[in-house]
Amino acid sequence: MERCQMIVAGFGFRGAVTEAALADALAQMGDVVPDVLAAPDDKIDTPAFRSFAAKTQAQVVPVTAEALQSVHTPTQAERILEKRGTGSVAEACALAAAGPKAALLTTRHISSDRMATCALAKGERA
Predict the structure, then answer these.
(1) At 40, is the secondary structure helix, strand, or coil?
(2) Fewest CB within 10 A of the end CB: N or C in the chain?
């Protein structure tokens, strides 16, 4: 079966995040159009994230706490490490959702209002 590359935008964000903050974090990556948006499964139904995802028309992938904790990230934010068991939620989400042969394209970028982070990874899909 032939595989093709996909781009995953992983997000970490506060509960009070806005669509604008999510868009700002993604826009810092340049003109990238992700195939997949990934976020922690306990935040996937946040209204701003759902609305943002619907506008991008990308597939949404929830990432479990176990998956987050199993990914080593280049960024090591102490507060996030203590709370989530990984150094960067955005980087861990991107890598986990991109699959076993994932490669990080960018470390996390923080929205201007500091409410959201975004990181990109590439992976293969069937």
Answers:
(1) strand
(2) N
* CA pair distance 69, 108, nearest whole angstrom: 17
Exposed e or buried b for every residue in 65-76, given b needs 16+ CB within 10 A? eebbeebebebe
Which residue type does 45 have? D
Quote the mean pLDDT of the chain: 93
- The answer to whether the CB of 89 falls within 8 A of the CB of 69 is no
What does the alpha-carbon distance between residue 55 and residue 49 come to, in Å, rounded to a whole number?
10
Instruction: Give phi and psi for 70, each to the nearest 5.
Output: -85, -5
For 40-72, how does the pLDDT look when each residue is reduced to its tens digit (9 = 90+)? Answer: 999 999 999 999 999 998 999 999 999 999 998
Mapped onto helix, strand or coil, the DSSP state of residue 76 is coil
Identify the bridge partners of residue 118 per DSSP, sorted by sequence position: 11, 109
Helix, strand or coil, per DSSP, at residue 1 = coil
